[in-house]
Amino acid sequence: MARVGVFVCFCGANIADYVDVPMVVEETKKIREVKFAIEYKYMCSDPGQQLIREAIVQHRLTSIVVAACSPRMHEKTFRKALSDAGMNPYLLEVANIREHSSWVHQKDKKAATEKAADLVRMAVAKSIANEQLFEISVPVTKRALVIGGGIAGIQAALDIADARIPVVLVEKSPSIGGKMAQLDETFPTLDCSQCILTPKMVDVASHPYIELIPYSEVIELEGFVGNYKARIKKKASYVNFATCTGCGACWQKCPVKVPNEYNMGIDKRKAIYTPFPQAVPNKPVIDAAYCTMLLKGKCGICAKVCQVGAIDFKMQEEIIEREIGAVVVATGYDLWDPKPYEEYGVGRFKDIITSLEFERMVSANGPTNGLPVRPSDGKIPKNVVFIKCIGSRDEAKGIEYCSKICCMYTTKHTILLHHKVHDSHAYVFYMDIRAAGKGYEEFVKKAQVDTAATYLRGRVSKIYKKEDKLIVRGEDSQIGQVVEVVADLVVLATAVIPPKDNPELARMLGISYDKYGYLSEAHPKLRPVETAKAGIFLAGCTQAPKDIPDTVAQASACAAKVCGLFAGDTMKKDPMISTVNTEFCSGCQNCVQVCPYGAIVTEEVPMGHGSKEMRTVARINEGVCQGCGSCVAVCRSMAISLAGFTDHQIINEIVSI
Amino acid sequence: MDYTKQIREIATKLFTEEKIDVFVGYRTTGFDENQVPVIITGLEEIPKLIFNDKSVFNLTNYLKQEHTRNKRVGLIVKGCDSRSLNLLLTENQVKREKLFVIGIACEGVCDDEGNKMQHCTECMFPDAVVFDEMVGTTHDARLYQVNADVRELASKSLVERREYFETVFESCIRCNACRHSCPLCYCAKCVIDQETSTLYHGANTTSSAFHALMTWSLHLAGRCVDCRNCESACPMNLPLHLLHKQNESVIYENFQEHMAGVVEGDRGAFYKYSMKDPDDFIM
Amino acid sequence: METIVKDQHVSIEKPEIAAPPDWEPVIIGILCNWCSYAGSDLTGTSRIQYPPNIRIIRVPCTSRVDPWFLIKALQTTADGVLVSGCHPGDCHYITGNYYARRRFLVTKKLLSFIGFHENRIQFSWVSAAEGPKFAKVVAKVTDDIKKLGPLHLYKKENFEK
Amino acid sequence: MKKLTYYPGCSSHGTSEEFDKTVKMVMTSLDVQMEEIPDWNCCGATSAHTLSESLAYALPLRNLVLAEKLDNKTIAIPCASCYQRLKVTKYHMDNNPELALRINTTIVGEGTYTGKVEVKSMLQYCYEEIGLEAIMARVTKPLSGMKLACYYGCLLTRPKAITQFDSPEYPISMDRIVEALGAQATEFDYKTECCGASFSISNTEVVIGLSGKILEMAKESGADAIVVACPLCQSNLDMRQPDIEKHFGKQYHLPVFYFTQLMALAFGADPKELMFNKHIVPVEEALAKIGKVEPGPEKIKKPKKALEAESEVE
Questions:
Q1: For the segment A278-292, what is each residue's pLDDT rounded down to a tens digit?
Q2: Which residue of A96, A105, A628 is in closest CB contact with C96?
Q3: CATH of span C27-155
Q4: Which CA distances in Å does A454 have to A447, A449, D10?
């Protein structure tokens, strides 16, 4: 038989003025299971809590009901009081007679009192079905995995490592740096991208708490929060990084020329290469798709010229494993291929380039010595048309969303063009100018004045060729007329899209992604860096298009989350999660279907005691379950129960009114 | 519709080629035209098998029984039965590789008086959707129509409906035959028998019948395939299909979902959602 | 969407037993912890007054609400039920309320079909910021149920006495 | 021998007789047997879908269902608009089960749609199923010396999701075909611009403006003539050309051929049989580029197949 103690709070006058508290206590005492009931001025005060502690011992109470303010306010306080008295804290129920009664029925004391008594009775009924629950503690491996070595991954890794937590940073290309390393100057301050990025890259390489694994990919992640195991594939670089000094003799002598990805294919690199001069690590790799030694067994010049014998043509890819507790995904973005814009002649007209190509051209270390040129004849363009929203905000050809950064970088490009070619003129076709950010609007305004660029609000419908010029036909919606601009060079501001292997990555990590392929955050407003899977966080453009300041902020936020997760030796978790009674489970797996966290897996159990025949049942991973109860409601067999909100407890509440 | 010959041929073939251990089919009751399910285990019993428009029962109910579990089973399914089979497959209750399914392109089954059953005239999927071998000529696509009984009752006033169902729940004797005959009721222990619910709903009362039938029909919402095993099993002749068909019409009209069990892997409307679901009934 | 259940807006069910003069309905409110329960707390802290008939039960999410609870409530103690949760898209558990929404519609229509007035079971989306809305919702539900009178249909006691 | 279901559409019996006739000639030359859909009906054109969605799908659906009764894999349709209606209907029948169910019931009695027949435009059929090599093999009088601007119009390749053929903005199938015939296709950027379509009658000025641009660009690309695969495009570019010339005060002299006319010509057919006399803009100047061919009285030796075609048609 349950022995319930009830403690009704006056809350000063807050409750007592509108609810007849002694009357509630009297009513409560009539309940068979209630062995002790008392009112007190402030239950949450020390003496109030002392009252509870004493009553527990004196009356051998098996559960406690505190009728006071909202459980969202003081549930934790009272649970602690129970703990202090040696009672399981989850045997507490709070009847909310302040927010739900005294404050909202101030004109009718009788009704408010009746309601308060009912609420207490419901809480008593529920508490009878309460069970002892124990905080779940999950051991934590204090090491973080960062996937992606762009600015997001670099920032997250540095921030986590600065908290003296070991970080494994995995980058799939030979060098960290990402897209930011390809940029010339950055808006809105026009400071040089390399100048602010490379020190951070060097920090990563030299940080004692960061293990940098370049030219590698994460291929498998198993386990759950605090206890993941990652398998990492190290691609064969054919260069022994341990002995290589980075002298560069190999790539200077290599005879094979390959389009240079770093410069958007505008110039050539060698088959053995470091992606760019400031690469970290500054060690070359051999591109197996082009190296004639690897393809045909001929050449080997690099091995001959290498003083330290670092070239190893027999190198194989290698799988390594790391135990980690949390993952930061920072796989960045890709740029949309404008090929579907056939009416622009993309692919047919050489003098239509993308913004990143333009960025590389005007970059001081770029392939054209910092000058924009027409790819068709190498001449310096005078009239340059910039077209924004190529693929962005275009449901028919591209994607529906706004890529967020194009307005700003196009503005930057008009400035760079103006700086490099003084007698040039820029035309910008735009849909809207979206310059929301610190200093952004000012930047755009200033650029428009300084460069005297012509801004045309409207879409371009066609580009065709007339002699060696491109005729850009579009609408100037502000004058409501079709305009044609004669251009030497057309620059397309192509949309930001998620990396194409994001869905595969998401499936591998067990997190969700949206219809475009961006990885999904747990809550769009309040949990923007967490994923639905505990212990996996998102930084940068892999979640949505972002500029550099936002990316860095999100990366640091990830670091804070990781540090929070690793604050103790074990993670404490609320025990109010679901469990499966395998005896009743029919194995229909509806719960697996509806669980938003993928916390439910299946396992085989014997059909009966000692039986060899097996049947499939559901099992809930307590590390992952968040306790929403979706699975409970779809379980027709009632094999699942949610601790703290069991069917028994809720039905008790319903029938006790 | 008489496929007795074809069924016997296929069953013979299956037993001779040792593809199955048991075959679930129909046989006559022996004293009237009506039929009962039969589970046969060998060639010698094949002459018992019969299939015609009196083959009413949904045989997939037998897949949850002891004598078919873990055996290779040959089975006859009509359109509706095949949909319940699809659901059983989706819900991991049976293994496809253990089944040999004879699909029937069903012309509709008849009641005791020999009239075509009313629900067969409304049937949207007369042809089996899961089968290894198909018997009969398949049908053109058919349109969804709201069950005539549901439509009729729905057009009545609230009070009339309430009075009607009061008599229904009053008549229920809580024998649970509906549940036992339903191929989709396979829970180890039904919720209406579990302690938490028996504690409060009382015994054999109208109230408990209300509770039990409502809970049951909501557990079948989006899953019921309208085979009417429950109605044929009900000793009180309760119009149980009304509850199921009402749920089906709400689901079909509001959620743009497939009919229950038509698509393999589809668990029914309650186990998925759409952002476009109706929201206007919520304040 | 055409609905086949007509006649949902009859003002009053036929009362079998007249309501006693001092009768007050019992309404069970099942609220999700993150939006509606927080919203109802806000109603309290804002001292917005509403009728005292509602008895609130806290659940983590509307997806925890089994239609069975609603049937159980109507069968035992309640004259009406209100279930309230987060607005679509705001669910703390991402998708819970979408699943719940489907179940609610079917349950409501089914109960209406067998003779319960549609207003006996009502649903609302109330966010943690919508304290005033919560008060309005409760006032409306209470008013609706008062018009309908006491619910005796299938009540356990009627059959045990 | 290949077999093909043929849906001629109403314009083949009117403004584009020459298209219909040359299609038949060409197909015979190419060893393709065409079976016309028995009792075919109007595709609904632009009128039906402005009135009723069901009607707009039901009319083409009946044609599709009738076509399924013939035992051929493909329907080929010369008219771009008919093609569009049938293709769109097929797309929705295949991808929109709800709609399919509804529309299927509107043509009760005609049969059930199964989706086994592929819908292609005549251009697509020539390009994909016959193939450039087969076309090239039949050429007896190459069109060498002729520069042609291939104009596709708006419907043959769009919308891409539905037509699944060629590029929606810069198609090349017709260019490849005329190249196979020995002519030179010019780099022509206005391939898929709008010709003004049926505004030709209700608002001629629109057509003069739009078709005028097309002629202007075709001329600029260096073409001697324009090639089309759509009756309405042909009539707009050809019939309105004198008005356009008058309006802009320019001279284009660009005859507008159906691609099948040129195919027949290259396959060796008698130019007199190709109904060039129906054209408004005189074709002589353009045809003179090939050198040998003159639409005059001079008899040209025809290959056997083409002769057969002629006898079949007439």
A1: 999 999 999 999 999
A2: A628
A3: 3.40.50
A4: 11, 10, 50
Q: Where are the domains of chain C?
A: 27-155
Instruction: With CA atoms as reference, report the closest residue to A387 among A340, A449, A454, A469.
Output: A454
DSSP H helical segments within A566-623, as ranges? 590-594
**pLDDT tens-digit map of D297-313:** 444 444 444 444 443 33
- Residue D272 lies in domain: 141-297
Distance from the B85 Cα atom to the nearest Cα atom in chain C, whole angstroms: 24
The list of chain B residues with pLDDT below 50 reads none
- Chain C touched by A654 (CB under 8 Å): yes
Dihedral angle sign, alpha carbons of residues B209, B215, B216, B222: positive
> Do B218 and C101 make contact, defined as CB atoms within 8 angstroms?
no
C109 contact residues in B (CB cutoff 8 A): 246-247, 250
Q: Check CB contact under 8 Å for D105 and B256.
A: no
The structure tokens 């068709």 sit at A376
Whether residue D288 sits in one domain with residue D178: yes
Same domain for D174 and D286, yes or no, is yes
Task: Count the domains in chain D.
Answer: 2
The CATH code that applies to domain A334-497 is: 3.50.50.60
A574-656 placed in CATH 3.30.70.20: yes
Class of the A4-128 domain?
A: alpha beta
Which pLDDT does position D292 carry in this prediction? 54
Q: Which amino acid is at A365?
A: N
Q: State the CATH number of the domain containing residue D288.
A: 3.40.50.11810
ipTM greater than 0.90: no
Chain D hits for A343, CB-CB cut-off 8 Å, are 169-170, 192
Check residue A389 and give left, alpha or beta (phi > 0: left; psi -120 to 50: alpha). left
pLDDT tens for residues A200-213?
A: 999 999 999 999 99
**Does D132 map to a domain?**
no
Residue A330 and residue A155: Cα distance in Å, rounded?
10
Non-local (6+) Cβ contacts of A155 within 8 A are: A200, A539, A551, A552, A555, A556, A559
Q: What is the pTM of this model?
A: 0.66
Residues of A with Cβ-Cβ distance to C47 under 8 angstroms: 103-104, 106
User: Cα separation of D149 and D262, whole Å?
Assistant: 13
